[in-house]
Design goal:
This protein has helices spanning about 1-5, 20-25, 40-50, 60-70, 110-120, 155-170, 180-195, 220-235, 250-260, 275-280, 285-295, 300-310, 390-395, 405-410, 430-440, and strands at about 75-80, 130, 130-135, 145, 155, 200-205, 240-245, 270-275, 370, 380, 420, 425, 450, 455. The protein has about 475 residues and is an alpha/beta fold. The protein has a six-stranded mixed sheet, with helices on both faces. A two-stranded antiparallel ribbon has the order 2-5. Helix 9 (about 250-260) links the parallel strand 7 and strand 8. InterPro entries: Copine_C, E3_ligase/Copine_domain, VWF_A, vWFA_dom_sf, X8. This is VWFA domain-containing protein.
């Protein structure tokens, strides 16, 4: 496979390590139309033409031949890794119930995906310089990315990517919410600073963009809105985005992102279900080939679209400038110099102190526990309802119990502290788990109290709550 893909490589080089030096050497440009893009009517017609790119290829050979026909000599790679909290439970089926980032003697799903990406996609990237970023941890949440290197330099090949990954993981605190906007914005910044050269952003993630249960149908959560806006904005640049899904999913929303994103200059987004492909009954080589095909099948037409739209080789100067945070440090060196701290999306601002993990809501992962009961237990003033796309085990593992002073001693040990709701004793677990089942279209409450004691907190088949 490597020999087949390597035939596409040309003489394009990026130069020495370092983000600014990458920008300087990448700015030499790629073959193709690098003009201003013609008049407004022509651009509108081309945008309509490339608004949806179908999956038209059936073999890797067809994809590589199409790439060759379009004159694609190389496509610079950018890698983004998801470090959100959901990685702790989305391996229930696919990774024996372990965190998807668990390190051991055998590769975890992220390492496996990165390794195969290295074998299948790296031959497009001749100089082997790969900017690598993480997002969704306790230092970046949904507003920034961190670089795998302190000086924001790229990794030299996928072997170094894997080495840096294993060095970073032990020092991370998984967090959230999930948003792909920060990594997309970071990639667009690189594209613009390198003179509009064609890039492929590969995002490896375990789940969908955060969507709360109280978001109405047809509406978008803040994270969804920013993700959509960033992908639409990215279609004005020569950038293809490939989202590689690892873990159990669910992936329904990502399929929608792939096919139904609105108002883009061209269809720039491709979703690949890595877990599904690698679980097929086939040889490893066949599965790796299938993964390569799924990841690359839209690239030839996407590359052609960037040429015909006149965005290849064009620098807008309008891309948001992204200053990645440094990689998480060991516990002995957690305090960062002020010059490296950030707040929100400001490039040089000071980052706010991160609350301890036991001080934030374990459902939304961001709201602080800011309400104390007489018994000393803490909760959030605004109850967070778990994402209905989360799995049942995740909700039980992350339930945040609240209590009132009079109730606490009465039911401790029966599943957590409780609150009164309409005169009825309800555990925090019942409220969030019931919301989960109702979001799944089931009218049964999975747990309820009879006013004096706990009946059930696990089995929705026991009946409908008489207090609902």
């Amino acid at each position: 496979m490597g020999g087949m893909l390597s035939a596409l490589l040309g003489g394009h080089r990026r130069g020495p390590a370092g983000a600014e030096r990458i920008a300087s050497t990448r700015s030499r440009g790629l073959p193709g139309n690098t003009g201003g893009g013609g008049d407004h009517r022509r651009r509108a017609m081309l945008s309509k033409k490339y608004s949806y790119i179908p999956d038209t290829y059936t073999s890797l050979e067809q994809v590589t031949a199409a790439l060759r026909d379009q004159g694609l000599e190389s496509s610079n790679l950018i890698l983004g890794i998801d470090f959100t909290k959901s990685n702790e439970w989305t391996g229930k089926r696919s990774f024996n119930g372990q965190s998807l980032h668990k390190l051991g003697s055998t590769p975890n799903p992220y390492e496996a995906a990165i390794g195969i990406i290295g074998k299948t996609l790296a031959p497009f990237d001749e100089d082997n310089l790969i900017p690598c970023f993480g997002f969704g941890d306790a230092t970046t949440h949904d507003y920034n990315v961190f670089s795998f290197h302190q000086d924001n330099s790229p990794c030299h090949g996928f072997e170094e990517v894997l080495t840096c990954y294993r060095n970073v993981v032990p020092h991370l605190r998984l967090s959230g919410p999930t948003s792909f906007a920060p990594i997309v914005e970071a990639a667009v910044d690189i594209v613009d600073r390198t003179g509009g050269q064609y890039h492929v952003l590969v995002i490896v993630a375990d789940g969908q963009v955060t969507r709360s249960i109280d978001t109405s149908d047809g509406d978008l959560s803040p994270q969804e809105r920013r993700t959509v806006d960033s992908i639409v904005m990215a279609s004005s640049y020569p950038l293809s985005i490939v989202l590689v899904g690892v873990g159990d999913g669910p992936w329904e929303d990502m399929q929608k992102f792939d096919d139904k994103l609105p108002a883009r200059a061209f269809d720039n987004f491709q979703f690949v279900n890595f877990t599904s492909i690698m679980s097929r009954n086939a040889t490893l080589q066949q599965k790796e080939s299938a993964f390569a095909l799924a990841a690359l099948m839209e690239v030839p037409i996407q590359y052609k679209a960037t040429m015909e739209l006149g965005i290849l080789g064009r620098t807008t100067g309008k891309a948001k400038r992204v200053v990645p945070a440094p990689p998480p440090l060991p516990a002995s060196a957690q305090r960062q110099p002020s010059s490296l701290r950030r707040e929100g999306s400001g490039a040089n601002a000071t980052a706010p102190a991160e609350p301890r993990e036991d001080q934030v809501c374990p459902i939304c992962l961001t709201n602080a526990k800011d309400l104390a009961f007489g018994c000393g237990h803490m909760t959030t003033k605004t109850w967070c309802v778990a994402n209905p796309s989360a799995n049942e085990g995740a909700l039980r593992a992350n339930m945040d119990f609240a209590c009132s002073e009079s109730d606490c001693s009465a039911i401790q040990g029966t599943g957590g502290c409780s609150v009164r709701y309409g005169g009825v004793l309800l555990s925090r677990a019942s409220v969030a788990m019931n919301a989960y089942y109702q979001a799944k279209g089931r009218n049964t409450w999975n747990c309820f109290f009879n006013g004096t004691g706990l009946i059930s907190i696990t089995d929705p088949s026991l009946g409908t709550c008489k207090y609902a």
